[in-house]
Amino acid sequence: MNQLRSSPEDNAVGIIDLDPSPHADEEAFPKKMKDSTLFEFYGFMIYLVSYVAFFIYLAWAILPESVLHSMGITYYPDKYWAIALPVFFISLIPFIYLMLFSWNLMNTPPLNSENVLTDEYAYLADHIVTDFRDENIPELMDLPVNLINHA
Predict the structure, then answer these.
(1) Under a CB-based contact definition with an 8 Å cutoff, are residues 68 and 60 in contact?
(2) What is the pLDDT of residues 1-36, one digit of tens each?
(3) What stretches pass through the bilayer (predicted)?
């Protein structure tokens, strides 16, 4: 790898050889670049394993017990769990949304709390822009709490 060099005393420009070792190309890449291929490999393997696990699940859920026994598979969970677990996980999604909403409501300070006051860096709006006929974008301002809750 070559680089231009200039010396201030004589304004001369020269070329310096910056390859001190034969393995300079390996050292030129940061460690993150080397580790990214490892993450890609693990991600691809998880992708493949998830497909294999899904097909095993479908085979267990759809195939009759006689077919599973003929294949030598005799130890498996009850077919009830083929429906119960997906229903449980699907019903868990609205529960998580409800709990997150409740948690946020519980942790929101009341309007008369000192935590909702503004600081010296706030740029409070003294008027509401309702006329957008100009081509300009209105400036960004903080809205006071009493203006927000004035409904």
Answers:
(1) yes
(2) 555 555 555 555 555 555 555 555 555 555 555 667
(3) 41-60, 80-100
Q: Classify residue 144 as exposed, middle or buried by CB count within 10 Å of its CB (0-12, 13-18, 19+).
A: middle
Q: Is the model's pLDDT at 130 over the cut of 90?
A: no
Q: What is the mean pLDDT of the chain?
A: 79
DSSP-derived letter for residue 136 is S
Q: Report which of 5, 25, 29 is spatially closest to residue 15, judged by C-alpha positions.
A: 5
Tokens at 79, concatenated? 């077919």
pTM (two decimals): 0.48
d(CA 123, CA 140): 8
Give dist(CA 60, CA 68) in Å, integer: 8
Q: What's the pLDDT at 48? A: 98
